[in-house]
Amino acid sequence: MTQTSTTPIIEVRGLGKNFVVKRTVFGRPLASVGAVDAVTLKLMPGETLAIVGESGCGKSTLGRLLMRLIKPSAGEVLIDGQDVTNISHSAMREQRRHVQLIFQDPYASLNPRMTIAQTIAEPLMLHNIVPANQRAKRVAELLEMVGLRPETANRYPHEFSGGQRQRVVIARALASEPKAIICDEAVSALDVSIQAQVLNLLKDLQKRLGLAFVFISHDLGVVKHIADRVAVMYLGKVVEMGTADDIFAAPRHPYTRALLSAIPVAAPPSHQRAKAARLHGDLPSPLSPPEGCRLHTRCPYARPECKSVDMKLDVEANGHANTCAFWRELPAQDAAEIAREPRNPKLEKLFAAFEAMAAKAANRPAQTVAGG
Amino acid sequence: MSTSQHTLETQSARSVRADDASASVLEVNNLRVVFEGDTRTVTAVDGVSFSVKKGRTLAIVGESGSGKSVTSLAVMRLLPEHSARISGSVNFDGRQLLDETKSGMRSLRGNRLAMIFQEPMTSLNPSHTVGDQIEEVILRHRRMSKKEATERAIAMLKLVRIPSPETRYHQYPHNLSGGMRQRVMIAMALACDPELLIADEPTTALDVTIQAQVLELMRELQQKTGTAIVLITHDLGVVAESCDDVIVMYAGQVVEQCSVEELFTFPQHPYTVGLLGSLPRLDEKREQLVAITGTVPDMANPPSGCRFQARCPFRIEKCAEMPELMDVTDGHFSRCWRAPMQDLVP
Prior knowledge:
heterodimer; A: alpha/beta; 8-stranded mixed β-sheet; 4-stranded antiparallel β-sheet; 11 helices; globular; B: alpha/beta; Rossmann fold; 2 domains; 22% strand
């Protein structure tokens, strides 16, 4: 296969993963959880694909499957056009260079006994990217790239704050010159002001290096900010997939709608939007997911047919896909309730002033604020 | 039956105590908490004052390390006495909580003061059924037979909308989902009709759809019982949707204090401006988020003058002096020399 820019960096087809949760005395599986079920998607170069959903929906398992950190039970994984579903350990290790992973807790992902220079140099050694005598220089470059001072290279992780540690983790991921980075709740543990710094950094790096991101998150505000395309998961299934603009402006699946309307909005109480119908009850046990549409036990629009309907992604020409067979019949005004937060022009000016002054202080050109 | 009678009794007793609805249930004045370690001394809370009225919800917002949780633990007298030095005054319904004896506090906690924490699994005892744990609170503070307490516990489970409460009563915390555990915590906290509920990040560990359910439940119960709530959170969205008043904390101090409406309409402290600007919002696509540069100051060695100055784009020379919390416009307080912020906008 010739490698052109239209080859997806990661492609998965009919991907599934079962975890055995109970065995007989002789080790025969008794019960298993379908963590990921029949997922098909592509990650193109330079794009950001977000995978969203609540805890237990399988988004992290999917992330691990995408870089073949774990072996799928069904389906296949292609990295850069090459089928890696069944390749050997050592061959996979070679491939890992192209797809890196960032986790939620930066402290747990850094070795406390290694200086950050050693940490960042490790992938350089492992993949023999830079000759030994130039490694220190490359580490300094990488640190600068993520906004850390190169003088800090000989410090240990405990000397850094959470946001700085996450920058170190990003620098290490960049060291192997990957084509894609999978960010598993990469900014969830950070305070909002620090989270904004790291998100800005990720966006900036993407622009400069042409990276692709798979952004796994439960925070739809963050996803809206960073993603080009979004896949929404519920109980191991992708229930809706489309461009970020489509998903946020006109969500189709009742689950996406409920998820969007459940996010508390930081707007004055007098400007709060009306609420779309809530999901009732709790997540069913993934050990025995409901028959038919998996959402029917909690869906505000459930009807008798939903118990037997086949959950199939109905893909339209523009790529917007969703599994709700009856989305065209859902109340229309409900979608409109995913309304916009009203913008206060005075407040926008204040944000702009804050940013302009901050930029001046840091001696860099002011960022343009879209729609300010 | 006797259970409901009892509830009526406590409620009428309370209405005598607080017939004036505008009276503050809790008044905190100039609270300071200093932790003394072997090598360094940290002032975690530095002169915090606020009050909460009956039936109102006050939000305390701030990032990690701002002192919001320590404030609430100090009010409940739950900080270790050998290492935390607490000064100031905490007035709860005419009683000075900081001067109460240990047993005096024990009879108040769980009874007239209640608290919910972030992680329901660590707050519940894994080796007792949830029913027993709710009952324990009731039996500790009310003269009731075991049977009446059981009835009351089941009624509480029903109140927080746990399906089939009679079955759940006999189950252990590990049998319940995260959202249900937090409901059990709420049931336990409200079992004795407290006048004040302190909720420390009650929904942070929950998924958004469950968070929405739990916040709605808390709002409804407050309307029924008139409990005053102090909600501690880092999530400005939660503040906007479920609180009446708000204080914003930064590095152990209150930097802004106002109604929720005012905070989100036009904040008066640069820290709040940065915080609101750094939130990715659902209604717009920005290329870059407004980011607050730098990190919070070291609390063992805070800078003299305004604590936000090193990160503040609006700083002037005067910021080397510590500003007081000043009234900017009708009850909207800000600890900033450059307030009102209207003057900074062209």
